[in-house]
Design goal:
26% helix, alpha+beta, globular, 6-stranded mixed beta sheet, 282 residues
Length: 282
């Protein structure tokens, strides 16, 4: 063996063992669906031996699919990692090129809609509503629904022509918080990607939740703006009082750096990635 060959072997070993050097992740297999899954936020229908555990955030997940849809079980085993998921929702970033990039994702979240919009959603899901049922639903002005959007890296909604959206349900137990998702396989394909997913190659999937959303920033700015108006009318410099030396010379909401830092500390962002192989559909 030559000296150059020995050096090459040492470099290869270091690349596999040194921290911070990228290594291929084990591919998680989605199981072929053998029995129907009711999307209700319960893990009872999921076999325990199919769970993959992400130890850093103590989350378990599992995957099943049929010819048209992917089902995901996402289970928090430790409440301290839940963060602001109720406010931010859960986003699945999807890449067909094996990269951990946030160019295209599917955001699952709760949304407040008017009664007439709820009726449209239910009918689009195949439910037949009688006139009496519609009248009953119209008795309340607003409802919360579980829904999803395809988004780009800025969080803007992306149109995905001809593909219906996904849905989810969540439930709490004494030991865990479960999110159960259903999404059409067609939604896994980024409509703007140069490399189109063929349905057979593994996907790099990133799970992300928590953090400060644009909606939170706008709400914070609106609240601080209202406080500034009230404080200004009484001759008070809100920026100096609320932010001290750090906010000196700034007035809310443009001087809301400390407030945003407080939000970031309260609503921590978490994420992890895995490679997912979809089972051949029947």
């Amino acid at each position: 063996m030559t000296r150059i060959q020995r050096i090459g072997i040492v470099i290869a070993v270091c690349a596999l063992t040194l921290p911070g050097v990228a290594q291929d992740k084990a591919v998680v297999q989605s199981r072929p669906m053998t029995t129907p899954v009711q999307v209700d936020g319960s893990a009872a229908e999921w076999p325990a031996d199919g769970l993959t555990v992400e130890k850093e955030v103590n989350v378990s997940c599992a995957f099943q699919n049929d010819a048209s849809s992917l089902y995901v079980l996402f289970q928090f085993n430790d409440s301290k990692f839940i963060s602001s998921i109720e406010a931010t929702g859960l986003t699945l970033w999807v890449n067909a090129d094996g990269k951990e990039r946030k160019n295209y994702g599917l955001r699952f979240y709760r949304k407040t809609v008017a009664a007439e919009d709820l009726i449209k959603v239910l009918e689009s899901e195949g439910q037949t509503l009688s006139e009496d049922k519609k009248k009953e639903l119209m008795g309340r002005p607003q409802y919360q629904i579980w829904t999803s959007d395809a988004i780009n890296k800025k969080g803007s909604v992306l149109p995905h022509p001809g593909v219906s959206g996904g849905t989810y349900r969540t439930a709490k137990s004494a030991k865990a918080v479960v999110y159960e998702l259903k999404l059409p396989l067609a939604l896994l394909a980024d409509p703007g990607a140069e490399k189109k997913w063929d349905g057979t190659s593994p996907l790099r999937i990133g799970f992300e939740w928590g953090g400060v959303t644009e909606e939170m920033k706008k709400a914070q700015a609106s609240e601080l703006g209202g406080q500034e108006v009230r404080a200004s009318s009484s001759g008070t410099d809100l920026g100096s009082q609320a932010y001290g030396g750090e906010g000196a010379g700034l007035r809310a909401p443009s001087g809301s750096l400390a407030a945003l830092r407080a939000l970031s500390a309260k609503y921590k962002k978490y994420e992890f990635w895995l490679d997912l192989q979809i089972a051949p559909g029947k």
